[in-house]
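Quarterly update from the structural biology core.
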Amino acid sequence: MNEAAHTHQIVILCSDMLFLSKITGVAKLLGFSFCTALSSKKAAEYLTEEGSQLILIDLTTPNLNWELLASIHHRNPHLVSIAFGPHVDTDLLEQAKAAGCTQVLPRSKFSAQLPQLLQAAFESDQNHS
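Predicted structure, tokenized:
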């Protein structure tokens, strides 16, 4: 039971299967457990109060539910969330910030810094515990 309190889990909200395989590959390499979701609703179902969690949000996922994402952030103020999307779609990136995402990055920066982002998210989470 004590182990569960120290579990690091990543919830990945992404519908791009090629990019999803890159994210899951890095997560596996770093020893993180993860689950994938194709909808905001499913991602919300995976979030729990137990252990450390990080949510990664691909902003190109169809039909993102911005109200649900905002409520997730409101209910879980210590939840670290990283949203990523096309650098040219500034409206989408702004919507993610407005929904409460901890970090909002262009997809290229997210991709280039993925291992460091995952590790830093959980280090930051431990500082809030």
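Strands lie at 8-13, 33-37, 52-58, 80-85, 103-106.
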